[in-house]
Amino acid sequence: MRFLLLIIGLVLPGLLYGQLTEPVFFKSKTHDFGEVVEFGGNVEYEFTFTNLANRPMRILNVQASCGCTTPGWTKESIAASGTGFIKVNFDPKGKPGYFNKTLTVTTDIEKNPIVLTIKGNVVDKKSGGDELKVVLGNLRLKSNSFALGKVFVNKPAIMQEFKIQNAGLEPLTIKRAITPPHITIPVPVTLQAGETGVLNLNYDAKVLNRYGFIADKIELITTDADSVKIISVYATAEEFFPALSAAEITKAPVLIATNYTLDFGRVKSGNKSELQVALHNRGKQSLTIREVQPNCTCVTTSLDKNTLQPGEAGTLKIVLDTKGRAGTQNKSITIYSTDPRNPVQRITISGFIEQ
To answer: pLDDT-based confidence at 7, cuts 50/70/90?
Structure first.
């Protein structure tokens, strides 16, 4: 009996760990390039992954769904807890319109192939897509929103330039900018009739101290007749982690969820459906969950603990409010943590709401 218990004690942890997640863990298996200029040259993206198995692994092959994607990947063996990459290169020339391509990845550690997806929209703009087509009074811009991309809460403020033009017949001055505290715009800015210039926007994510997708509104007060111009500002805030040494990797916190894909099945509209997922710290240092952000107001989440000690687990409760919804549902929840190798992780939930 004692021998049997010893065998169970040795085997069970490995079985449980194998059930926690896929052995080859990608932070995301889909990348959206957004708008790609047809004559702007190739675009590239690098999918990164972690080997969560207890033995080394190797990528055997990466097969693209069409010749317009050129894959490259880590060729050498990847140790347990090590990281690797799969690089995709897309040539948009001669391919206008929406695209959705896949990379099928085979490894020596997973029976089923892994499918990665790239998508976007190729636009026919030989000038590089820099036209100032949005008109706000006499002010012309490329867009009525400023997209900053990724910003970091633990790094200095960034400054980004946005091209503007005075389309009027008289000088135009941006005399005041009404912004939230984490955004500043140096004013006044004066443009002569027909003149093109830039608007400098400074964004300090440290002041905001939030994580995830952030949308703001700013107001530019100008001297033309339509004096108030409202513009959206979008950014995604994360925490920056420098590259780790081999010794640091062995000590770092590691966030693992029991499941990254959840199905709440079929539920009646008007009811609330609740799911739970366990979050484990498999590392050797304390781990903090900074923020949990659903992509829909119909989803609410709660954590029983935000800090996990080494070997500790917490519970993430997920509630879907089906009121006013019907049909197939696909939502996601993004988790921001102090896992330095995978600080942003995503859990997807799906199901069907019946009327």
So the answer is: very low
Q: Give, for 64, the enclosing helix (H) or strand (E).
A: strand 59-64
Total tally of structural domains belonging to the chain: 3
Q: What average pLDDT does the segment 51-63 reach?
A: 89
Q: Side-chain half-sphere of 323: how many Cα atoms within 13 Å?
A: 6
Measured CA to CA, the distance from residue 172 to residue 167 in angstroms comes to: 9
Q: Are 196 and 240 in contact (CB under 8 A)?
A: no
Position 309 confidence tier, pLDDT thresholds 50, 70, 90: very high
- Judge whether 158 and 147 are in contact, CB under 8 Å: no
| SS3 of residue 3 by DSSP | helix
Residues 162 and 185 reside in one and the same domain: yes
Average pLDDT over the chain reads 87
Determine the structural domain holding residue 325 and report its residue range.
246-354
Q: Does pTM top 0.70 for this prediction? A: no
Residue 87, phi then psi, degrees to nearest 5: -100, 135
177-209 per-residue burial string, b: 16 or more CB within 10 A, e: under 16: bebeebbbbebebebeeeeebebebebbbeebe
Same domain membership, residue 251 and residue 233: no
pLDDT band for 284, please (50, 70, 90 cuts). Answer: very high
Residue that is last in its domain, among 123, 144, 165? 123
